Amino acid sequence: MLLRGNGIVGLWGWLTLLLVACAARASEITFELPDNAKQCFYEEIVQGTKCTLEFQVITGGHYDVDCRLEDPDGIVLYKEMKKQYDSFTFTASRNGTYKFCFSNEFSTFTHKTVYFDFQVGEDPPLFPSENRATALTQMESACVSIHEALKSVIDYQTHFRLREAQGRSRAEDLNTRVAYWSIGEAIILLVVSIGQVFLLKSFFSDKRTTTTRVGS
């Protein structure tokens, strides 16, 4: 809610407006995609709306997944196989329900963690230009600049969160492999040590031969 007094907008009103504007543009989901599985999402889109689909595989296997986007008539607008990350922008040609699916059916035992951001339409202006007889005030211009900076901060935070999650997954996978390798080396070392002990023991053991005379 905007509060005006002597031409000055209340600070809490501006902060609320900025937070609502930033939250309204977010349509991000991170989900688990099991092996031999397929997950689809649906979105009602109005004709002429510009949309952008971005996705990235965070964890699992070779960090790849199949992606497919269809319009309401089932026409394939986008299709990629075994992609780690990608971005696709299109303009809706008709009204209806658009479907996009992520498939991990080519993997037999590795599940994936997939992140995607599906943006429908463009962000509305912070201050609509309709029915405005005057230019933006200094406070309004500053709020527009802050709003754009906050959007950039959100994008950077999302990017670094994904990189951190992917790096953590790789580190945990490497740590597991190192642990298994260490256990294997310990077992081999134990077996070799026991074998050496028995081998040395056989060298110093007193072998006695007994001769038996058989009468004719």
Automatic annotation (TrEMBL):
Keyword field contains Transmembrane: yes
TM stretches of this protein: 178-200
One GO cellular component term: endoplasmic reticulum membrane
Keyword Endoplasmic reticulum part of the UniProt annotation: yes
Membrane topology of this protein: Single-pass type I membrane protein
SMART domains: EMP24_GP25L (SM01190)
Subcellular location: Cytoplasmic vesicle, COPI-coated vesicle membrane; Cytoplasmic vesicle, COPII-coated vesicle membrane; Endoplasmic reticulum membrane; Endoplasmic reticulum-Golgi intermediate compartment membrane
Signal peptide range in chain numbering: 1-26
Keywords: Cytoplasmic vesicle, Endoplasmic reticulum, Glycoprotein, Golgi apparatus, Membrane, Protein transport, Signal, Transmembrane, Transmembrane helix, Transport
Any Gene Ontology biological process: protein transport
Top-level taxonomic group: Eukaryota
Record Pfam families: EMP24_GP25L (PF01105)
Cross-referenced InterPro entries: Emp24-like, GOLD_dom, GOLD_dom_sf
Principal location: membrane
SUPFAM superfamilies: Supernatant protein factor (SPF), C-terminal domain
Annotated ranges, domain GOLD: 38-120
Role of this protein: Potential role in vesicular protein trafficking, mainly in the early secretory pathway. Appears to play a role in the biosynthesis of secreted cargo including processing and post-translational modifications.
Family: Belongs to the EMP24/GP25L family.
Protein name: Transmembrane emp24 domain-containing protein 7
Record gene name: Tmed7_1
